[in-house]
Design a protein that fits this description.
single chain; 201 residues; alpha+beta; Pnp Oxidase, Chain A; 6-stranded antiparallel beta barrel; 5 helices; elongated; Pyridoxamine_oxidase_dimer_C; oxidoreductase; flavoprotein
């Protein structure tokens, strides 16, 4: 663990990740909490897309989506995932690999209630990842659900959070001449102690 000081210091990887995200929020132009989320489909073919990380908790990373979307179906069938969060302004990134489980209904309800009204209506209107005949059809669905629910749409049952509980978290910072700094936190199972090691760049 030689040299794990400065921006790498700390004994809790979740707190360290939160501190990096808080710093990035001051410098990134848009969406400092964007992550590239990787899953696999039924044939084992990798899939990746950008989503917004909504919480770093004591032992998990949380994001929200349509459970019937491609990523929702993939995560339900194969509840493991990886993501990378990269900040060009800081020249840093965090990589995470681990197990996935649905967020509780209560937590999903609470987060859904904080979203903008049009985003809540959009969750009802969008049949995410499925074919769409035209933009006009989508906007008609938005108008229909907006009229039905008014100012207080409930959370759809098919929409909610996922929790990624990691087995590995890697913190990376850019170095001169590509001699980067990398520290990997790894554990054999959930709840096991972390082992931290420096990696070659």
């Amino acid at each position: 663990m030689t040299g794990r000081d400065g921006i790498f210091a700390g004994e809790d990887p979740f707190q360290l990740a939160q501190s990096w995200l808080d710093e990035a929020a001051k410098t990134e132009v848009n969406d400092a909490n964007a992550i590239a989320l990787a899953t696999v489909d039924a044939d084992g073919l990798p899939d990746v897309r950008t989503v917004l990380l909504k919480a770093i908790e004591a032992d998990a990373f949380v994001f929200y989506t349509n459970y019937e979307s491609a990523k929702g179906r993939q995560l339900t069938a194969h509840p493991q995932a990886a993501f990378v969060m990269h900040w060009k302004s800081l020249r840093r990134q965090i990589r995470v690999r681990g197990h996935v489980a649905p967020e509780s209904a209560a937590a999903s309800d609470a987060y859904f209630a904080t979203r903008a009204l049009q985003s809540r209506i959009g969750a009802w209107a969008s049949q995410q990842s499925r074919p769409l005949e035209s933009r006009e059809v989508l906007m008609e669905r938005v108008a229909t659900f907006g009229a039905e629910f008014g100012e207080n749409p409930p959370r759809p049952e098919y929409w909610g959070g996922f929790r990624i509980t990691p087995l590995q978290i890697e913190f990376w910072a850019d170095g001169a001449f590509r001699l980067h700094d990398r520290f990997q936190w790894a554990r054999e199972s959930l709840g096991a102690p972390w082992n931290v090691k420096r990696l070659y760049p």
